[in-house]
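Q: Is it fine to ask for two folds in a single conversation?
A: Yes, each is treated on its own. Send the first.
Q: Here.
A: Result:
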Amino acid sequence: MKMFGTNGVRGIANGYLSCELALQMGRSIGVVLGPRVAVATDTRVSSPMVRDALRAGLMSVGADVLDLGMVPTPALQHYVRSRTDVTGGVMITASHNPPEYNGIKCISGDGTECSKDEEARIEDLYETDIPTVPWDRIGHVSQVSGADEEYVESIVSKVDAGSIRRAGLTVCLDCANGASVNTTPMLMRRLGVRAITLNGNPQGEFPGHPSEPTEDNLAELKRMVLDTGADLGIAHDGDADRCVFVAGDGCYVSGDIALALLGRYMLRRNGGGEVVVTVATSKVVEDSAASAGGSVAYTAVGSPIVARRMMSDGGVFGGEENGGLIFADHQYCRDGAMGAARMLECIVSDGPLAMQMASLPRYRTVKLQVACPDDRKTEVTEGIAAAHIGENVNRTDGLRIDYEDGWVLLRPSGTEPKFRIYSESRDPETAERRASEFADEFAKALGGQ
C-alpha cells in the first residue's frame, strides 16, 4: 500500500493518521531504521499523541528511542547525521499543512530524508504482522536535551558570524508558532541580529496565519518589515525546514528569486560549481549562476531528489522554489535556519535585498492547474510529447519544452488528480499565450478517448 507522499505520511490526526497507524508505522520503521531512532515533533496539538503511539511501536520491536522534544526537522537531521550510533530519525510534522493534519517523516542514518527504497520497505512491512520482541528486549526511551542549541551552533560555525554581528541588522521573524520558535530567535541572538518576532509562541494556535508561507499569507510580516525599518523579513513553515523572505522595502521575495540570489552568492563564495534545482524552477536561477561562473542541473520535483543529486554531483547549493534551501557545506537537506543565516550573510556581503533583486533579469511565470484522472496521466503526457518531437524536450519530470525565449512545463501531480502547467518568458504576453496554448492542447489530449 502506498503511504508515503512527497514528504512523509500525512493525514488528519485521529482520522487517517490514527494512533493505530502510528503504532504500526513505528514497528515498521523500527525494523528498517533501528536499532536507535531519534524522534522529534513540531508544535501541533496532536503531535504528542502521534509521537507516543509511534514510540510504542518502535520500542515493541526492540528499537531504542532518543526523544529530542520539539525541534525543527533540520535540527533532528543534524542530530542524526552527527552521531554514528543513531541509525535513523522520525519527525512528527505535517509541515505547512493546516493544523488538523499531522505526519510522519523518516530520516536515514546519514541525516537525509529516507530514500524511496527505504520508504517502500517500511510500507511493505506495514502490511504484515510484524513480530515484537520479548519483554526483556523492549526498547528504551531516553530524553535528549540540547539538540536545538547544537544545531544553532553548527550554523553559526558555517557563516561569517563576525561580519553579521558588526552589521547591526534588524529582522522581522515569523515562526508560525511552529518548531522554529526557539531555534531561529536563538540563532539571531548568537549572530548579534535584533529580531522582532511574531507568531513565536509554541503554545499558541498553530500556525498563526494560513499555514502555507505564501505572499498572501504573510501580509502581517510585510507590514511589520516596513513599519520597523527592518533589513529583512524571515518566515518559516511549521517544521522550519523552509524559509521565505521579505525585502527591506516590504516586497515578498519569490522562491525562485531567493534561489537565484543565494545560488549566485554561494557560487562566488565557492569559486564556481553547480547549483541543483528542479525542472519547475525559473531560468533566473540559471542566469544568475552563469554570472557567477557556475552551472545549473535540473532534477525531478522533490527536495530529497535535489539533495541526492547534489551529493552525487558535488553541487554547492540547491533547492526548490517553495523556500526549501539546501547548503552542501552544512547538510544535505532543506534547512530553514541555515537559509536565514546565509541570506543575512548575503546581505552583508552584497547589499540590501531589494537592490540585489533589481540586478536580476525579470521573467513572467504563469502557473495553471488542470484536472486529470490519475489513470489518464501517462496517456496524456505521451500524447502531447508525440506532438512535440524534434523540439527541445526534457522528460525528467513530466514534459518540459525549452524555447529561445522561455519554457513550458506540463507536470502531473504526485498526490492529486491534476496536472500543473508552468509557462515562463521574459515577455509576459508570450508566457500567458503559451500557458493558454498548452492548456488547450492538454484539454484536447484529455478529451480524445
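Q: Second one now.
A: Result:
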Amino acid sequence: MSHTWDVVIVGAGSCGCIAAHEISRSGFEVLLLDMKPREKIGDKVCGDALGTHHLKRIGLDLPPEVVVQDVSGVDTYSPDRKTVFRVGGGGLGAVILDRYKFGQFLLNRAIDSGAELSASTRVLSPIIKSERVIGVKVHGDEVYAKIVLDCSGVGGVLRNRMPDGTIDKELKKSELVVAYREIREIKEDPPEYCEIYLDQIKYPKGYAWIFPHGGRTVNVGVGMPSNLNIKPREYFYRYVMDIPILKDSKAVEKGSGVVPTRRPMDLMVWNGIMFGGDAGFTVNPLHAGGIGSSMLSGWLMAKAAIRALSIEDYSLRGLWSYTPEYMQMYGAKQAALDIFRIFLQNTSNEELNYGMHHGIMKEDDVLKASIDGDLHLSITDKVKRVFIGLGKPNFLLELKRTADRMRDVKNLYLAYPETPEGYSSWLSRAKELQRIIYG
C-alpha cells in the first residue's frame, strides 16, 4: 500500500470506531484496521454495562436495539453479605448493552462517516523513521499515515513495540485482571441494580459481579489480578455459583477476558502516534469498566488528530493536547482510584465487614469517589474504638493516608502540563509519588 492515509487506526473497538467516525466526518482519510473479520467485530467478553454520563459527554445517542435495559446504579456487598452499599443517581445511571450489536453499531457508524475498514488484518509493529511513527507493518505489507492511533486493546500491539524511553508502557501482572464470565438464565427476576460482591477469600484482590442482562438472564463473573496465578473459572464454579440467585441457573454463554487496571500512561502521545482505550490504559482501575473511558479517549484523540492535521504538525507537540485533555476529563480520577484499588486489595474481610457496617464511608461518599476520585471518610470516635478493639488501629491510619494520597495524585494529574516544556518537571513529581505509592 503506497498511499499515505491521514490517519491509520489499529483496532475497531469502542475507542477506534469513535475516533474513526469523528476524524472521517471532518473530511480526512481514515483507515481502520482490525484483526477480526468484520462480522466478528464487537464480539467481546465484557460486563456489558456503560454509564450514561459517558454517552452524554461525547454526544452519542444509542439506537434502542443495542440497549438491553437500563439500570439505576450498583449494590456492593460486604464479604459477610450483611451490609450493602447502594450507589445510584448523581450521574451513575447506566445501560446494559448487547455488546455485539453495540460494537457493530459503532463500526457501521464509522464506515458511514467515510472511514475505510480493513478487517482480518494483522498488524505487526509500528514503522519508525527519524524518531517518528510513519505507519504500521501488517502481514505482508506496510501502511503509511500522517498519524497512527493505537486502539488495539490490552495487547497494545504498537505500544509494546515502541522504543524504550519513548512512552510509559509497563503493565505489571498485578495490574492485569483476568476474568471469567457467563450469561446465565435464572429462575427468578434478576436484580434491579448491578451487584458487586467483595470477598478476599472467594475473590482475592478482585470481586464477583451479577448484572441484569434482560429478561431472566444475568451477566455473572469474577475477576482477579493475574499475578495470583488463580484460574478464575475454578473460583467461579467454587464460589460465585453459591450466590442464591444463581441456584439451578443455566449457562447460555461462556468466556474469558483480560483487562488492564492501572493509572493512565504518563505520556499518551509520541511523534506521529497516540494511544487510547485498553492500549492506552484508560480502564477504571477500581471496577475494571472500560467502555466509557475507551470511547472518551477515542473522542479526545480524534480532536487532537483533527487539530494536528489542520496545522500539518504530527509531532509530539502537534499531538500534545490529547494527554492533558484526557487527564482533566478522566485520567486524574483514574489515577486517584488506582490508589484506592491498591488499598482495597490489601484489606482483609474482617476490615471490609467492619468498615462497611460502621459507615467509615457513606453511600454518598462512595458515589462521589466513583465520579470524582475523591475519598471522604467518616471516622468517628466510636469507629476508632471498634478498630482499636479489633487490634487494627493501623487500618484507619492507612485509610486516611490513602485518602490523602488520592487527593495529592488527583491534583497532580489535573495540573498536567499544557505544553511539552513542562513535562520533565511534572514527570519528576509523578515519579516521586509513584515511588511512594507503588514502591
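Q: Anything structural to flag on that second result?
A: Two points. DSSP finds twelve helices and 18 strands in the chain. The chain has a mean pLDDT of 93.
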